[in-house]
Amino acid sequence: MVNHYYFSCIDEDFGSFFLTFCSYFPYNAQLCLNGHEYLKRPLAKEGIAFEALDNGLLSCDDPPRLQVIAAGLDAAMIDALLRKWLAKRPHPFTAADRQAGYR
Q: How far from chain centre, in Å, is Cα 86?
């Protein structure tokens, strides 16, 4: 019996992450992302050289900028990522249910 669905995604700003949905009530969901993958995206966009590890960074040409980027990753950004990708996936509740406050 399938009781969880996994969506592996790649976001332009966050890199790779995955969403997990439970197929039965209360329809729990989980967002798993890697902060190191997030850090690599703006560094690459800004042209800052870095040496990547499988799960981290070994070196960076601009450590102060790296720190600013890392400090900027907050709950609001993660929530925005989740909301962006939830809008692209099927939802277990109807539009009327969501307007009534069910999430």
A: 11
Question: Contact, 8 vs 25, CB < 8 A?
Answer: no
Integer-rounded Cα Rg, in Å, for the chain is: 17
Question: How deeply is 85 buried, as exposed, middle or buried, from its count of CB atoms within 10 A (0-12, 13-18, 19+)?
Answer: middle
Total-model pTM: 0.78
Closest C-alpha to 72, from 51, 101, 43, 30: 43
- Is 50 within 8 Å of 42 (Cβ atoms)? no
pLDDT tens-place string over residues 43-86: 999 999 999 998 899 999 999 999 999 999 999 999 999 989 98
